[in-house]
Amino acid sequence: MAKEKKKNRFYYNEDFLGSPQGRSMRILSEYYGPLKKIKKNKIYDTIVFFGSARIKPIDKAEAYLKQLSSSASNKEKFRAKKDIEISKYYEDARQLSYMLTKWSKNLKSKKSRYIITSGGGGGIMEAANRGAKEADGISMGLTISLPFEATSNEFISKDLDLKFHYFFMRKFWFIYLAKALVVWPGGFGTLDEVMELLTLIQTKKIKKRLPIVLYGSEFWNSVVNWEYLVECGTISEEDLDLFHISDNVDDAYDYIIKYIKEYKLKGPNF
């Protein structure tokens, strides 16, 4: 009987919590809920991987091309061949995550340092969590509920699959503890994330100069004409120093490690 009475409280009432009047409580739950799990796992800071959920590992990309029938359209064949071409980003993300996790595990600290964090889905996100797991490290996945996309990949560490409803709260947790960010080829979501990140640093809302790697020069220089933005005066030439474009896992790794060691970045970013 006592339990039934307790269930009558508003904080148990799904209709209230899902209503417009309960919105502030839902937002706060996406702050305090992740905070509790992060503290429980003694996570002090993170390295974040952004990128497309659609990029396949090489074995799946090759298998898809092989299973296409001879009657497949030219568009389908082109797409399958392109999947193989860009699968290199999956494999490179996996390798870089592995290397960074091995490095962080060798640090002498009672806290979990520089934990690989992804959006928790497939593609580049899966590769990031997979590489960390293969290095016997932990990693986080900040998944988002979407109507057309599966969420959590199988490589996220137990208790660190943090599920979000609100994009802005998910982006807060991406950036709050980040000490480096690697942005791989992606679509609207990835572009949204990297442009907001660059804006926060450019406007000094984030006062730390975090190392940002844009991985894949062909992709990034095709998608964004950085020099034209400078030419038009919509950004300054110095703004191009906010990020480092890389095509090589070793180069990206060296840039991140050197930056972290040189600037001794500590604590939350806000």
Describe the model.
The protein has helices at 2-7, 14-17, 23-40, 58-67, 74-105, 124-134, 167-176, 188-202, 217-223, 226-232, 249-263; strands spanning 46-50, 115-118, 139-144, 161-164, 178-183, 212-215, 244-246. It is α/β, with parallel strands linked by helices. It has a single domain (33-56, 87-263), classed as Rossmann fold (3-Layer(aba) Sandwich). Strand 2 (115-118), helix 6 and strand 3 (139-144) form a beta-alpha-beta unit. Helix 4 runs antiparallel to helix 5, helix 5 packs parallel to helix 6 (124-134) and helix 5 (74-105) runs parallel beside helix 11 (249-263). It is globular, with a radius of gyration of 20 Å. The mean pLDDT is 93.
Describe how the helices and strands are arranged:
Layout: H1 2-7, H2 14-17, H3 23-40, E1 46-50, H4 58-67, H5 74-105, E2 115-118, H6 124-134, E3 139-144, E4 161-164, H7 167-176, E5 178-183, H8 188-202, E6 212-215, H9 217-223, H10 226-232, E7 244-246, H11 249-263
Parallel strand pairs: 1-2, 1-5, 2-3, 3-4, 5-6, 6-7
Short description:
Helix content is 50%, strand content 12%. It is built from eleven helices and seven strands.
Q: Approximately how much beta-strand content do the residues carry?
A: 5-15%
Radius of gyration: 20 Å
CATH architecture: 3-Layer(aba) Sandwich
CATH class: Alpha Beta
Tally of separate domains: 1
* SSE sequence, one letter per element: HHHEHHEHEEHEHEHHEH
CATH topology: the name is Rossmann fold
> Please, what is the average pLDDT?
93
Kindly report the oligomeric state of this protein. single chain
Largest sheet: 7 strands, parallel
Number of helices: 11
Structural class: alpha/beta
